[in-house]
């Protein structure tokens, strides 16, 4: 069983075909305003589309503008759990009562709901919090309780909207480990800006931009060979898009890039080329030697990190040593050649 959604929302410039297979966790990534929250709103029932259809495990959630009569299932009757960035726990209830709320609202007895609450609090390592009120919880504790409350309602699909964004650097890893365990075998969608969330929690990644899905596939495949600038930026890769040629790729500016082309890529195909900033060398004068790609660009930013310096020039990035920056006397505004060997460039279909 699965989620299948095809929808248009012209008022927000949104259009998508989206699916989640049984037992699959899908990570949705994209810049601010890409349409991620709109997608969650449509699935959960917080937004009503002008046209489209969605069904979950064979049950129609909505149907609008189709050949059959329109149908709309309200949010509370969809079997979809939504975990927001903030825990949003009921402040007047204890932790155990918060978690028991879902089963009770579905008709479970008080004893059965309490048993379910204890089970999920144990699963989320939060048993000792059962008697506390939400105001007495830390951010990490509150989010664990919110996950337990969502799961106690036994949703057919769990939606997580940046669940780690409000947590400090020490609480996020612990919640990530717990989510990895409790999401196993469940249908879930997690919206995130953090590549690590996708790598550790998701089977598949969907990249959105401008209200459209621009890229999707297995997580490691997308991160290894990104086809969108956002995915490339998240993984730290330089990305060039253009048209395949006999010997590489030509970008929109007419610059030719040589590299290791994937088998089956034909001249004229839409293609992408990716390479690591660490494989880029910087020169003030264009060097001679083995086959290389070279682009003259103006330095826009120098970012020190971990004993290295990332030198940026617009979309281009090179990772070099502080000594190299000193030797070249680099500063924003300087013109330099970004040079990368053809063997370091992967070219593949876009």
Task: Give me some keywords for this one.
350 residues, alpha+beta, Rossmann fold, OB fold (Dihydrolipoamide Acetyltransferase, E2P), six-stranded mixed β-sheet, globular
Summarize the topology.
Layout lengths: L2 E7 L4 E7 L4 E5 L6 H9 L6 E6 L2 E6 L6 E2 L7 E4 L11 H11 L4 H14 L15 H14 L4 E5 L9 H12 L5 E4 L3 H7 L2 E6 L2 E7 H6 L4 H7 L2 E7 L3 E4 L4 E3 L1 E2 L8 E6 L5 E3 L8 E7 L2 E5 L2 E6 L2 E5 L1 H7 L6 E7 L4 E4 L1
GO molecular function, one term: ATP binding
Pfam families: ABC_tran (PF00005), TOBE (PF03459)
InterPro entries: AAA+_ATPase, ABC_transporter-like_ATP-bd, Mo/tungstate-bd_C_term_dom, Molybdenum_import_ModC, Mop_domain, P-loop_NTPase, Transp-assoc_OB_typ1
Give an overview in words:
This protein is an alpha+beta fold. The protein folds into 2 domains: 3-224, P-loop containing nucleotide triphosphate hydrolases (Rossmann fold), CATH 3.40.50; 236-349, OB fold (Dihydrolipoamide Acetyltransferase, E2P). Helix content is 25%, strand content 34%. It has a 6-stranded mixed sheet with strand order 7-8-9-3-10-11, with helices on both faces. Strands 14-13-12-16-23-15 form a 6-stranded mixed sheet. Strands 2-1-4-5-6 form a 5-stranded antiparallel sheet, covered by helices on one side. Helix 5 (171-182) links the parallel strand 8 and strand 9. The model has no long low-confidence stretch (mean pLDDT 91).
* Rg: 24 Å
Count of helix runs = 9
Strand order of the largest sheet: 7-8-9-3-10-11
> Overall 3D geometry?
globular
Mean pLDDT: 91
Question: How would a textbook summarize the main sheet?
Answer: 6 strands, mixed
Shape-level CATH architecture of the largest domain: 3-Layer(aba) Sandwich
Helix/strand/pairing category? alpha+beta
Please, what is the CATH homologous superfamily of the largest domain?
Answer: P-loop containing nucleotide triphosphate hydrolases
Number of E strands: 23
What is the top-level CATH class of the largest domain?
Alpha Beta
Helix content bin = 10-25%
Quote the distance from N terminus to C terminus: 30 Å
Identify low-pLDDT runs: none
Q: List the quaternary state of the chains.
A: single chain
β-strand percent reads 25-35%
How many distinct folded domains? 2
Which fold name is given in CATH as the topology of the largest domain? Rossmann fold
